[in-house]
Amino acid sequence: MPTTTNRCPCGTPLPYDECCGRVHSGAVAAPTAEALMRSRYSAFAVGDAGYLLESWHPDTRPRELTLDMERQWVRLEILGSTGGGLLHVEGTVEFRAHYQHVTHAGILHELSRFTKVDGRWVYVDGDTTRPR
After folding, report:
1. Which residues does the UniProt record annotate as the domain YchJ-like middle NTF2-like (predicted)?
2. Which end of the chain has fewer CB atoms at under 10 Å, N or C?
């Protein structure tokens, strides 16, 4: 788990505890779809399956989630977004998440859909067949 002085895995210059760590702990809600997507990437990076399930839309959320602990998430690239702002109720974020596995390196390229439920952003689903 990152410490207060470690840079947040999502790529901002802030320490984890001042960035995604606050969202993971429930101290603040992600204000935008992109902020939620960044917090979800960070949750994969720090192994927080509970947060990932909690931030998933109830209609598309799996019953359980097992993370591959041999996959280390190393870099996030935001490629673009639509909607997803403070005054929106839906949005998309396209990103590339770079990882290193025990046997290989890889990139997850996804267009993710988000919506608000009870005023909070949640992940609906993603399309990984849409490379740019």
Report:
1. 32-126
2. C
